[in-house]
Amino acid sequence: MTPTNDEWYFLNSSKIWLRGIVHQGRRLLENQQRMQSAMQAITGENLIWRQDFPVYNDLRIVEEHLFAVSVSKAIDWLKEVRKFRKDLVVDIDSFLQELPEAKDLRNMREHDIDYFKGKGKAQDRFVKNMPDATIDGSASYSDNNGYFIGGRLNVQHAIDAAQKLYPKVEKAVLEIHEIE
What is the pTM of this model? Predict the structure, then answer.
């Protein structure tokens, strides 16, 4: 069966956004390392005066948003691929199961003004109770289990899941090019 142009586009877009997860995730983790390094060299009193820390903190918010968008876009495209590539269903389902709250988080981040006004579509889920803290969809934290955006999306787990699925999706895209 010859794939349609739409099928190729869905597969290739999935590949692009899986790569985006890895790329943005690495940028986010690198920025986190810079923030931690900046914090180690200073005391609490002069934290606010340290020039690089506020920059890294501002960029963290931007990088987290772009990461959440990359994860969300990958999920959207992969759900379409799942409809016609039965050979990838198990792998796609495994990827999706690793990121159960990613779409919710992306929506909270994208519509943050509504959530802060108390008018978000999933307002009842905006604040999440974690074992050691209460966190809303706009915040992030790190602990021994990883770097979590909004208490919902573990950055390293998402990177790992994308890296696991990427070669299979890439192979499917390349197979289509061989047919033509």
Answer: 0.89
